[in-house]
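User: Fold this; tokens only.

Assistant: Input:
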Amino acid sequence: MIQIFLKERASWILFFIFSQLLVMAMGYLDTSIPFLSTVYITFISCLSFVIFMTIRYERETRFFKHLHALESSLDLTAIPEANSPFEAITSERMSEQIQVFKHQLNGLQISLELEKDDMLNWIHEVKTPLTTLQLMIERTEDLALRSQLMYEWLRIHLLLDQQLHQKRIPFIRNDLYIEKTDVQKLLFQEIKLLRQWCMQKRIGFDISLETEEVLTDAKWLGFIIRQLLTNAVKYSEDSDISIRSTSKDGIITLSIEDVGQGIAPRDLSRIFDKGFTGTANHQHHAATGMGLYLVKQVAESLLITFKVDSTVGEGTRFSLIFAKENELIRIARM
């Protein structure tokens, strides 16, 4: 702050130095003025100027030090009290701008809420004809056509489901219901949803669950499993997806492993980033880069951590590590 203050007052300091040099020059050139007296006056003036600048520094920087230390917020009470007319102008303009920003922010929040509600209503409206379409497809006698139609229906269903959960994630804390959840039942539900796609790609499932129940939110865990299974099926073919659960020291781990194309080492640290689709998978134009990003958001709320192991050309294993029960009970009571 001292450097900033000296830079701000550089013109004052230069003018003072110039005036003192002028006084010294007059004392040197004018023989009627004792030069020693001129030096003495200059010394006293410099000492007084230093004291004056020190006092001004303390008074003038107090307001701006407070401003510099402020966190980004719209709290009007956080604006420091003005000690000078210029500081009063600054404080007043800041207050006016904050009021404008608050008004704009409130308007944007209302618009965002309306947009979210409209989107959720639209998704629910679309689900009705989508269910009817599924029943119509199931009555189709041409097996090859039925398989193709079910695959496209499934893509639409999964995209709508992803969009629905994306809109709900910001309010997930209000939607959590922690209970004993049957993992096997959830897995079978999600596999049943993907069965036509799996049959088309000749993919099977090898399931071995040491622990069949976990303490979590069934709906949101189902969303996580759905996204991971969808990715496993998307990047696999003519192979089995292995699903295992283990328990050690009260910590349950659920792993989903495919024998697909794998993830490049340079991509592993970025797979949960929003919009990231992988440097090796750009041929999959249907990828949105949102699935694993949303999974990460949900997992953090459920206190689930991820471990990802992958080898290019050999496959990928996602391990979901659930928190201990006492930690989940704590968030359930929040």
